[in-house]
């Protein structure tokens, strides 16, 4: 089991590194092509995009990966039992997007250009869901190579399309450039899904029995997916309301252009750079889920604790040097990546606290793997309430975008401490 975990983690780390580098190149290329105005509009849309994607998947990728890894359930029956729920949720969300986009655009985001971009998300939803469900099978079987290959291919394709086609859209308004970036997800997700399907077993035979729903399978899936979905939903709702609250709170003392620009700098320049090490911790977590699930189902707490300590140690080994480099050379890093030094102060302020953020992915995965997803939900409820309330309160002190930065710091600190406390109690 140790060899499998190490191999899986190594494959995901190498693949994650390549994908993250490509992702950073994509972000840098996109930012340089569409400029601050374009990236600011794009960042206003992203919270809504993340919220809808989280809802569309309904936590099923995590649930399926965990249940498949336990090796005591029919994989085909698991998929077909949950398929009707996934289809129904996706259809409801597509209708919801089209009906609410005008209101969100004009009344919440205060940006009429965002309406067409919001509506385009509806077309992306089903393709992202299908791709995520396919990945869950490979994670459950601890087969990480298909996931890595699909991710790298998808990123390379996305980069090529952005470099070749995005500059041609500069003659049009910013909203069409952002629209292109959102709809590009459809093509990349289709490509990713085709690659994943290629790696599926070729001798799959589906019988009538496989198509019949299994109540116990559904119950087991929902016991994981519902807390997982609610947890992600709460985080996504917080990000969804974040720009809305920020604009509403600051527009009395600051211009809309200032708020949008600074929010774009934070989310377009600073956070992508500071989150760069997260590909390691996410890779470790993805490899951790099936191993911990299998060990916990067999009551082997020794392995569970061992893997937890390994994951935390690896996360710190990666996070500490990265934090030091970011603290020492923030201007150089921003200039090399984005040809700007805007956001240096934000970077210095956030870097130390993000060392705690790097620990969250393995901690969340541990709780999911041992069937305690409800604690992830509780952590997000507490931290989100504090984050939003602190943002509202701090915005009254006329400190501009720093009200958001401080609320982010509070959120990371509380969430990490709570997760550590709960895991410690569960594994006594």
Description of the molecule:
The chain is an all-alpha fold and 428 residues long. The chain has one domain. The chain is built from 16 helices and no strands. Helix 1 crosses helix 3 (75-108), helix 2 (60-69) packs parallel to helix 4 (114-140) and helix 10 (278-297) runs parallel beside helix 14 (354-369). The longest helix is centred in the first third of the chain and has 56 residues, at 2-57. The two termini are 22 Å apart.
Helix content: over 70%
Give the CA-based shape: globular
Q: Round the Cα radius of gyration to an integer and report it.
A: 21 Å
Class based on secondary structure composition and strand pairing: mainly alpha
Head-to-tail CA distance between termini: 22 Å
With helices defined by DSSP (H or I, 4 residues minimum), what is the helix count? 16
How many beta-strand elements? 0
Mean pLDDT: 81
Give the quaternary arrangement of the chains.
single chain
Beta percentage is: under 5%
pLDDT < 50 runs, ≥5 residues: none
Order of helices and strands: HHHHHHHHHHHHHHHH
Q: Can you tell me the number of structural domains?
A: 1
Major sheet attributes: none
Summarize this structure briefly.
The protein has 16 helices and no strands. The protein has 428 residues and is mainly alpha-helical.
Describe the secondary-structure layout.
Elements: H1 2-57, H2 60-69, H3 75-108, H4 114-140, H5 145-165, H6 174-198, H7 208-211, H8 215-250, H9 256-274, H10 278-297, H11 301-328, H12 330-338, H13 344-350, H14 354-369, H15 373-395, H16 402-426
Helix pairs in contact: 1-3, 1-4, 1-5, 1-6, 1-8, 1-9, 1-10, 2-3, 2-4, 2-8, 2-10, 3-4, 3-8, 4-6, 5-6, 8-9, 8-15, 9-13, 10-11, 10-14, 11-14, 14-15, 14-16, 15-16
């Amino acid at each position: 089991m140790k060899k499998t975990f190490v191999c899986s983690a190594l494959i995901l780390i190498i693949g994650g590194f390549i994908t993250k580098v490509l992702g950073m190149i994509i972000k840098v290329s996109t930012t340089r092509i569409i400029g601050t105005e374009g990236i600011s509009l794009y960042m206003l849309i992203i919270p809504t995009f993340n919220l809808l994607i989280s809802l569309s998947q309904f936590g099923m990728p995590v649930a399926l990966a965990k249940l498949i890894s336990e090796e005591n359930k029919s994989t085909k029956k698991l998929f077909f039992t949950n398929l009707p729920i996934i289809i129904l949720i996706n259809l409801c969300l597509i209708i919801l997007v089209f009906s609410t986009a005008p209101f969100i655009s004009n009344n919440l985001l205060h940006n009429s250009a965002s309406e067409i971009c919001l509506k385009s998300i509806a077309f992306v939803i089903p393709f992202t869901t299908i791709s995520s469900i396919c990945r869950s099978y490979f994670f459950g079987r601890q087969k990480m190579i298909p996931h890595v290959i699909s991710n790298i291919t998808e990123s390379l394709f996305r980069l090529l399309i952005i470099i070749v086609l995005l500059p041609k859209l500069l003659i049009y308004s910013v909203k069409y450039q952002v629209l292109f970036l959102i709809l590009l997800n459809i093509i990349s997700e289709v490509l990713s899904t085709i690659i994943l399907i290629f790696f599926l077993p070729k001798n799959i035979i589906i019988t009538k029995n496989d198509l019949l729903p299994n109540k116990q399978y559904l119950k087991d899936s929902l016991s994981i997916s519902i807390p997982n979905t609610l947890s992600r939903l709460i985080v996504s709702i917080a990000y969804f309301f974040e720009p809305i609250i920020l604009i509403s709170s600051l527009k009395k003392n600051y211009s809309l252009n200032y708020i949008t620009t600074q929010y774009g700098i934070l989310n377009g320049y600073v956070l992508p750079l500071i989150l760069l090490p997260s590909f390691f911790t996410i890779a470790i977590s993805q490899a951790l889920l099936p191993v911990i699930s299998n060990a916990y189902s067999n009551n082997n707490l020794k392995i569970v604790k061992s893997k937890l300590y390994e994951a935390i140690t690896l996360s710190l080994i990666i996070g500490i040097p990265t934090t030091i480099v970011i603290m020492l050379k923030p201007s150089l890093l921003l200039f090399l990546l984005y040809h700007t030094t805007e956001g240096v102060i934000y970077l210095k302020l956030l870097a130390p606290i993000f060392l705690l953020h790097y620990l969250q992915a393995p901690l969340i995965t541990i709780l999911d793997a041992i069937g305690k997803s409800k604690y992830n939900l509780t952590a997000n409820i507490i931290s989100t309430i504090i984050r939003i309330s602190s943002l509202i309160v701090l915005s009254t002190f006329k400190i501009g975008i720093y009200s958001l930065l401080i609320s982010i710091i509070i959120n990371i600190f509380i969430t990490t401490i709570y997760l550590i406390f709960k895991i410690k109690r569960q594994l006594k």
